[in-house]
């Protein structure tokens, strides 16, 4: 290099010092940037791990849900007592029929008191009613059951006349907006309407199912969507998701929300005949196809066949993956995984360009895969936990590329620093995971001890990870998570009992065996659903006899090995006997997990 | 000798599993590929701290001959295993980090003003993107003084990581 020596040029030592100084500053800046980038990457990874935990557990629960469906079939075949005494139960489990002529009967049962100051809808509905509802819900008012029923009956009537597939036209001046799962998150819907405008003839929408469950405003979202649909039936399209299902609602919170908000006896939500779960866009001819699924019509005799039901599950539960072909969706226990070759084949067959679907939570609110042919859109931000993910919606029309809009609801006026948000969701995820572990404690210890030949209480990382994955059935990055769950010694070996140290299931009664407590805790969601279904008058009580025979059936179907006498003793000692009936909510509430290092003493996992 | 070899093999096997875990979390389609833009995060999540330049070189090693925007696990694994075995790109120790801040604060005030930090981070070295700068500021700025009390900041970050 022949750059002149600065000192030769007579600039003196001051320039040299300046150079040295700036070189030092440069090096210092590099150090800080390097460190920060490493730190930030590790934060993002921890965030991703937390999401993976939430998602794995959610999918494992969905498996449990499908198992529960099987149990009901099993139960009805064996529980003849129920079938004879309560034929209504069969109807409730497999869909019911409310003929339109019953509509007036139902409405006559309800009176709107003068004191009611909530929103009052005017039929036939107009856009004024949409505004009315939105304003009312913003003030946390509740729509009276009378109007709810009117909307439901009306919606059902209109939907029944619609075909399974809807075609709609778009153009660059009339774009269509597609939203994914909302799951009862009203704030997200408000945000979408705020940013994107209310539905109208010039502002059409597609809502891709999963309107309800998990969030606390499923009812309000449903009402806004249904009313908007009734006002603009050709411009507001509703597709069915896997959560538009009576059984899912029992587990995931919608039923609970209804019972809580409406406190009505014999609330029988008519199964809403709805539509499929995909919107397929046809860009070529400027038309858009909105797929709908199988209609279930009113009468009991028109129930779906087993094969049809399986097709419905396939539509509503499947996920795209990178591997070619079509194979069972083992994560969820229903539907399939389909590869890019399947997508190409189907799109080509029906001359479609893109498949827009939902059903999977994505950190950025949307994700594109299969070479740009499949888009997943998810509109419930903070789905698992505050900070877990963004929500998104898509605007598109024929001849243009889709545009994506992302958002994230935040309670504070400004976002907390990243490390705080990550800490929050990480603690929440780890907590859930620990509760999972404690509910399978007996099985886990057995698996650990099988590998621990020397009875040292220690296992290698590989051995521990293997057992955890096998017993819990969760495909998680165990090695990376181990530091949160167990203690490791300096040789890298794991003290496997340390995983159970600061968590335990509260024993409602001292004398009962841990395995029974653990089993009831593990299956508490399923038991809750089963009890709720048996409890036809919603009194919260079932007879001791029903309680016992239910438990026997449950035991044999789920292959649970608990002595009957143990269970009887538990029920009696808990003394929840009210004139020969058991208060099952009290029963189940008594089983919860205590985290030692916690201000809260009760588990606050989001149990439906 | 045989024991040493066994131990090495076990060590390598454990590295392989660790790398696989980190990779899978970003493998959204479960087809053993990740977006090339996430490779930096994966490498750093495994405890390595390459500079942006070093990262660039690493990516070139694991990319396809004709870059597709995706990195395959088969190419990533051997390269990453070597990096871990050779203990390359070790993280910055806390005291070096502190000294770096002190260099930028020659008057030894104990803090950097918000503007000073922005200037250094976005104009020197391997400059931050706007997103990176905003994120760092949200945690580093002490709201009362509107400056970066770097000693406290470092302590807080170190505690958070452990």
Structure description:
The complex is a heterodimer of chains A (608) and B (162). With 608 residues, chain A is of the alpha+beta class. Chain A contains 21 helices and 22 strands. Chain A is globular and about 75 Å long. With 162 residues, chain B is mostly helical. Chain B is built from eight helices and five strands, in the order αβααβααβααββα. Chain B has helices at 2-25, 39-45, 52-62, 73-85, 94-104, 114-123, 130-140, 150-161, and strands spanning 33-35, 70-72, 112-113, 141-142, 147-148. A three-stranded antiparallel beta sheet of chain B has the order 3-5-4. A two-stranded antiparallel sheet of chain B has the order 1-2. At the A-B interface, α1, α13, α15 and α16 of A face α1, α2, α5, α7 and α8 of B.
The total of helices of chain A stands at 21
- Estimate what percentage of residues of chain A fall within beta strands: 5-15%
Low-pLDDT segments, ≥5 res of chain A: 1-12, 94-101, 265-302, 600-608
Strand-and-helix sequence of chain B, N→C? HEHHEHHEHHEEH
User: How far apart are the first and last residues' alpha carbons of chain A, in Å?
Assistant: 72 Å
Largest interface: A-B, 44 and 49 residues
- Alpha-beta classification of chain A: alpha+beta
Ends distance of chain B? 36 Å
- What is the typical, i.e. mean, pLDDT of chain A? 80
Q: Report strand order across the widest sheet of chain B.
A: 3-5-4
Q: Give the uncertain stretches of chain B in residue-range form.
A: none
Largest sheet report of chain A: 6 strands, mixed
Compact description:
The complex is a heterodimer of chains A (608) and B (162). Chain A has 608 residues and is an alpha+beta fold.
């Amino acid at each position: 290099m022949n750059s002149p020596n600065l000192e030769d040029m007579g600039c003196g030592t001051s320039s040299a010092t300046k150079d040295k100084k700036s070189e030092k500053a440069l090096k210092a800046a590099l150090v800080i940037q390097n460190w920060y980038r490493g730190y930030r990457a590790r934060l993002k990874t921890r965030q991703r791990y937390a999401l993976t935990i939430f998602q794995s557990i959610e999918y494992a629960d969905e498996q449990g849900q499908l198992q529960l469906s099987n149990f009901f079939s099993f139960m009805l075949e064996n529980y003849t007592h129920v079938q004879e005494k309560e034929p209504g139960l069969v109807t409730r489990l497999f869909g019911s029929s409310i003929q339109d002529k019953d509509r007036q009967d139902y409405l006559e049962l309800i009176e709107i008191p003068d004191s009611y100051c909530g929103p009052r809808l005017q039929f036939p509905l107009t856009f004024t009613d949409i505004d009315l509802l939105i304003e009312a819900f913003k003030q946390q008012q509740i729509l009276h059951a009378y109007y709810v029923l009117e909307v439901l009956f009306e919606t059902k009537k209109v939907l029944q006349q619609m075909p399974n597939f809807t075609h709609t036209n778009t153009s660059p001046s009339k774009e269509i907006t597609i939203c994914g799962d909302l799951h009862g998150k009203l704030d997200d819907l408000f945000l979408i309407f705020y940013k994107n405008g209310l539905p109208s003839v010039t502002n059409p929408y597609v809502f891709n199912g999963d309107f309800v469950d998990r969030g606390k405003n499923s009812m309000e979202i449903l009402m806004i969507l249904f009313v908007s649909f009734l006002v603009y039936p050709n411009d507001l399209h509703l597709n069915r998701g896997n959560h538009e299902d009576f059984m899912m609602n029992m587990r995931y919170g919608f039923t609970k929300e209804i019972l809580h908000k409406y406190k009505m006896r014999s609330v029988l939500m008519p199964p809403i005949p709805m539509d499929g779960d995909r919107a397929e866009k046809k860009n070529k001819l400027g038309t858009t196809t909105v797929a709908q699924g199988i209609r279930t019509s009113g009468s009991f005799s028109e129930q779906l066949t087993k094969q049809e039901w399986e097709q419905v599950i396939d539509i509503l539960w499947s996920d795209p993956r990178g591997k070619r072909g079509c194979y069972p969706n083992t994560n969820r226990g229903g539907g399939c995984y389909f590869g890019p070759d399947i997508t190409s084949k189907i799109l080509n067959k029906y001359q479609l360009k893109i498949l827009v679907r939902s059903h999977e939570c994505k950190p950025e609110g949307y994700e594109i895969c299969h070479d740009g042919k499949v888009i997943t859109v998810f509109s419930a931000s903070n789905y698992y936990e505050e900070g877990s993910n963004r929500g998104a919606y898509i605007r598109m029309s024929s001849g243009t590329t889709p545009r994506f809009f992302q958002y994230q609801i935040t309670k504070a006026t400004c976002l907390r620093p990243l490390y705080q948000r990550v800490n929050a969701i990480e603690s929440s995820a780890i907590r859930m995971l620990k509760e999972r572990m404690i509910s399978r404690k007996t099985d886990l210890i057995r698996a650990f001890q099988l590998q621990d030949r020397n009875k040292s209480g220690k296992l290698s990382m590989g051995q521990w990870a293997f057992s955890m994955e096998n017993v819990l059935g969760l495909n998680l990055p165990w090695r990376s998570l181990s530091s949160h769950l167990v203690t490791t010694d300096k040789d890298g070996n794991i003290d496997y009992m340390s995983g159970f140290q600061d968590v335990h299931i509260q024993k409602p009664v001292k004398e009962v065996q841990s395995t029974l407590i653990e089993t009831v805790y593990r299956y508490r969601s399923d038991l809750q659903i089963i009890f709720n279904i048996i409890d036809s008058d919603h009194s919260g009580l079932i007879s001791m006899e029903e309680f016992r025979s239910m438990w026997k059936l449950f035991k044999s179907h789920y292959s649970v090995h608990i002595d009957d006498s143990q269970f009887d003793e538990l029920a009696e000692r808990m003394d929840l006997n009210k004139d020969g009936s058991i208060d099952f909510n009290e029963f189940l509430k008594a089983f919860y997990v205590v985290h030692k290092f916690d201000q809260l003493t009760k588990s606050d996992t989001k149990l439906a | 000798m045989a024991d040493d070899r066994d131990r090495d093999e076990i060590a390598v096997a454990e590295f392989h599993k660790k790398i696989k875990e980190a990779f899978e979390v970003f493998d959204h389609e479960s087809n053993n590929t990740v977006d090339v833009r996430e490779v930096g995060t994966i490498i750093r999540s495994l405890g390595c701290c390459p500079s942006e330049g070093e990262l660039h070189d690493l990516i070139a090693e694991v990319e396809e001959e004709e870059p597709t925007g995706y990195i395959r696990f088969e190419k990533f694994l051997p390269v990453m295993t070597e990096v871990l075995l050779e203990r390359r790109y070790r993280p910055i120790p806390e005291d070096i980090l502190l000294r770096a801040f002190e260099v930028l604060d020659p008057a030894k005030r104990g803090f950097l003003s918000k503007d000073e930090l922005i200037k250094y981070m976005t104009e020197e070295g391997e400059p931050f993107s706007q997103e990176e700068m905003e994120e760092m500021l949200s945690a580093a700025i002490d709201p009362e003084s509107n400056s970066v009390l770097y000693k406290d900041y470092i302590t807080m970050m170190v505690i958070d990581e452990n």
